[in-house]
Amino acid sequence: MIIRGLILFILLTHSIAWAGQGMGPGPGFVVAVGGGGGGVTITDDFNRADENPLAAPWTQIHTFNKPRLVDQALRSTEFPTAWAYYNQAVADDQFAQIKMSALSSDNGVTLRSNSGRNALENIGYSVMYNDGNILIRKWTLDFFTNLNSVSATGLIVAGDILRGEISGSTITAKVNGATVLTATDSTYASGFVGISVKGQYGDEVDDFQGGDL
Asked: pTM for the complete prediction?
């Protein structure tokens, strides 16, 4: 029992250390305790072979348009916005962030996300770039409401980190750690963290991180 406990301690310690290093080398994704605010942190650097669609533990929301992994970055398969969430339970207060390899409309992250009827519709919140703006949106069965927006001019460029946070009913958008936008909504109380991508033109997102806030 002592030996088994020691082995588990060593494995957990290594996982925490790896998560704290951010998007370093590794087998693509890892779930660890000790990141974010001290709870669950998920990282996926997508540094692995192509996947079409993006494979488990990611869950595709649309049955016809799915994020795919191409050359170690994410794109969508067709024109409509593609969502996928990481199938790992996280706290209701949560965060998700992504590297914006290119600025393309609807690229970003999702919070408290779930599937709608017949796994065809998005449910949850998104923090995304769209047509020269940074938006916070609420999605209900593929219909969206813009909760707040701000011009992206001077706030974000390709290669920046776009991050969304939700605590209670407050949703926050950040770029490289700086708050650029907030909104309030209490429609959804729980769900998964994930990504939104509309890279039908080859625009990509990369280096996902999310979990407990």
From this structure: 0.82
